[in-house]
Amino acid sequence: MSEPFSVRVTVRGYETDVQGHLNQAVYLNYAEHARWSLLQAAGITQSGLIAQGVGPVALETTIRYRRELLAGDEADVTCAFTWSGGKTFTIEQTITKADGTVAAEITAVGGLMDLKQRRLVPSPQDVFRDLAKDPGLFGL
User: Fold this and answer.
1) Which residue, among 132, 88, 107, 112, has the nearest Cα to 31 in the 3D structure?
2) What is the C-alpha radius of gyration for the chain, rounded to an integer number of angstroms?
């Protein structure tokens, strides 16, 4: 298996809490940034999804905090899709400090919503495969 898709982020001072740690909600922003970066790298745009009448939806997210991130820290945020063959998929993400220390592990369950019917599409992997210029980034 190839390495998961990854983007680098730098913790900004305004993203930290009173203790100087990265605010817990910002971990979700970093994860979302990595997911949209993967879509972009695969050749899928937000406008392209809308033109197809679909949009990604988050159904469940779990964050396991492992080590603190502080202002100025650089970290890599990975993103790997796992396909169940049903209406949903899982995205495993790891936020790793530049020194290799795992700061957080994020597991998300998502789907693609048909924007007219307001229901999940039956086979999101097929939609991603059809839209992507590089479906390998999705493990397809």
Assistant:
1) 107
2) 16
- The CATH class given to the 5-138 domain equals alpha beta
What type of residue is 12? Answer: R
Q: Is the dihedral of CA 38, 42, 44, 45 positive or negative?
A: positive
Please state, rounded to an integer, the average pLDDT across all residues of the chain. 95
> How confident is the model over 54-110, as pLDDT tens digits?
999 999 999 999 999 999 999 999 999 999 889 999 999 999 999 999 999 999 999
Give burial (CB, 10 Å; 0-12/13-18/19+) of 71: middle
Q: How far apart are CA 102 and CA 31, in angstroms?
A: 14
Judging by DSSP bridges, how do beta strands 102-114 and 5-10 pair with one another? Answer: unpaired
